[in-house]
Design goal:
There is one protein chain. This protein has helices at 14-29, 96-112, 192-204, and strands at residues 3-7, 35-40, 45-48, 64-66, 73-76, 80-88, 119-120, 127-131, 134-146, 149-157, 177-178. The chain is 22% helix and 30% strand. The strands form two sheets. Strands 1, 2, 6, 7, 8, 9, 10 and 11 form an eight-stranded mixed β-sheet that branches. The protein has a three-stranded mixed β-sheet with strand order 4-3-5, with no helix packed on it. It is built from three helices and eleven strands. By secondary structure, the chain is of the alpha/beta class. The chain has one domain: 2-Layer Sandwich (BirA Bifunctional Protein, domain 2).
Amino acid sequence: MNIEVKTSIKPVDYVKSMKILEQRVEDVFNGKEDELLWIIEHTATYTAGTSSNNEDLLDKNIKVLKTKRGGKLTYHGPGQKVVYFVLNLNKREKDIRALVTKIENCIIAILKEYKIDSYSDKKNIGIWTGVGNETMKVAAIGIRVKRWIAYHGFAINVSNNLDGYKGIVPCGIKDKGITNLKKLGVKNYSKINKIIIKKFLNTFL
């Protein structure tokens, strides 16, 4: 199985990235293209997943883009690594729960490289870490499966401005906070793309 790896240095417009992703899904399904791993950052954007609701939008002036991924409201912005993938489950295990578990374990392995202990939560999707007595989210997961092609992906907060989350209830979770690698004391994250690629390919190749 071949996975094409792409990284975009400059922030990519969210709508543009979705068009590229949707086209890749079609091409992978039809056997025209390899599977994909694409690491990007977005300009400041709020997106709503298929299970989002208006109650989670605290600042009604925020413009929200509707998306086909699972999950609720979230914020993307510079300093957050958005890891998109297109994986053909027709040629893999047709088990969405197993796929999510692999993604969770992949993110946990990435964070371990920075000596961050993190974990998944069956009730609240995403990857979490303990900060003092608080539980903080450090990575979000949102996946869609179309004709057994899994796509969208996950986002790791690296050095993004956490104020961007103030106008929403991120992922519909009110009683837990949001953090990033920078706040967790990581001073050098220049090699994070290489680490993401290595751990992802270790998981899926």
